[in-house]
Amino acid sequence: MAGLQEPRRVTELSNELTRDIDTADPLGIVRRLCGSDAQLFAGWGGHPGVNDPVILDRLWKLSLKTAALLKENQDQKKNNRIVFSGCGTSGRIAWLCSWTYNRILQKFGHTPCFHYLIAGGDRSLIISNELPEDDPPKGAEDLKKVAEGADHVMFVGITCGLSAPYVAGQIDHSMHQPNMTSVLMGFNPVSLSRNAPIEKWDKTCRQVFLELETLSCTSDSAFIINPIVGPEPITGSSRMKGGSTTAVLLGTVFLTSLQTLLGQPILPSMTLPAREPEETEVVFDHSLSPSLSPMVSLLDCYSQTYQTVYRHSGGVASLLKLAASCICQPSGRLIYLGADTLGALGLVDASEMVPTYGVGLEEFRGFVAGGWEGCGNTEGDLSGYGKTFRVSLSQFESDVLPSLTDQDCVLCLHGSSQRTGPPHLHTIVNKVLASPAKCGLLVMAENGMSCNHLLDKRYETAVLIRLPYYHAFGKECVFAGFALKLVLNAISTGANILKGRVYGNEMINLRLSNDKLFERAIAIIEKWSGANEEDAKFALLRAIYKQDDAANFQYRPISSHITEASSQNMVVPLALLLAGGRSSVSYSSREKAAPVCQRSQGCHINGDRPNPWPLGHYIPIYLTTTRPNTLSL
Questions:
Q1: Which parts of the sequence belong to the SIS domain (predicted)?
Q2: Catalytic residue among 352, 446, 476, 519, which?
């Protein structure tokens, strides 16, 4: 009943700054994303943001706790571990951050102690594995395995919407263990965390997270880090602002802890804290505490990196335009090539397209020099799982390079500190430049570094972003990586908008890969068809099972629906047609329909704003012709 529905979580709301993003040209898309990303630092709606004194106090206390655990490893030879965990994007950020922090420890002669977990294991770094995300006991089991033999474990569970059952199971386990510190990171008030029943479990996310919140008031082994940074620019797409905020918060806490341990500044200009506050001291105003200055300075570095990226909005828009000119083609592809952390970020961005926009596995790809070797992932080389997991440059050369056409866009990702990059990358790039593919260059440049060696007139578009900050501890490209994430998110999101996979700021062809996305699909159908919740769900089931009479499927567990739907494309658009009054639809021919959202019809890449026509009460329609009055599946 609509009157009894709870308020929607902030992370599931529509961002008012981007509600017309589907009508924008490439530069307009980037400018709207700039406004949304500003909320990461400015906060949203009167809630505490990342710069709020209450959040800063929690971050500082967590940093002190972390530094103490790291110090015990150094001085007392203890086996303390720090474990980051999450589903989808959160798990991928957990992987990248643990890899980065371990390399910093190794550089200074310390034993790595950072670990990560991702629901579904390492295969989920490339392809979402739906059912483990909704399995709390599996989450607890995975945590027990990684904690085995440790003296103390700091567990950091990341769930942007406070909605992941996998993480809830881990928090439920960790907060009842005497040798564990429990940290929950997300971007909703705890009171709005997900409260839906979970299959084969007797608790909800909200029950677990409220218990942790209560515990955090009295214990130094429980933390909740939940600044409110506003709705995503594409509704519910936590890979964007949620993922970026996660990277900022993890960096702020754990780089500061490493600075304390190592006695080395994160940046040459950053001083060490003058003192540590007493255990009983509570700091609510960072301007009064010299101890907080390195952490505040670090947040300022991230903020300045964000500002620098969007001062290059024109360049980012030019790369977006280049990518969209290929993605909007029938067989177009966008391919990222890079090395080290920057290459891995291309891998991550490409991996997020299937669940978010329902694209094919080959439409967005990422390749990194050296492949899985040296990527710091737990399971090592994943190439044996299939073509999609073959991510080295050698595998690009054998699998993809021979098939490149003028409908493909290859984007080369460089850091200026890499000089010419790995020799193989230079060789591969030259071969790509000689191919029919459209080739772009994106350079994250370190101040004072010449980039002339990277430039080549054969690139159709080349963009250089010179950053005020680049490395952390003189080695890891933390700030360059944050900048690159913002740019890649803009490029891939913009390309999908121009392809017609977004209406307003809603992703209308999401892949139903977990419980949360199943719920989101029902909400989208309700919103755009005018149907009530019950009818919207029934239309969704009809679309999943391809039967007009879906009554037999109504009482199956949601996991059954997800298993059936996770490999299907265009389920939500089909359900929209059904919920909107289309009583007769040819299910067998639905795969032939080309995704075109009416308001972005014609793929306005060159800056021509389309003229939206009145669309009636149901909006996103999959057309087989260009005539607005033709609905055909």
A1: 66-277, 323-501
A2: 352
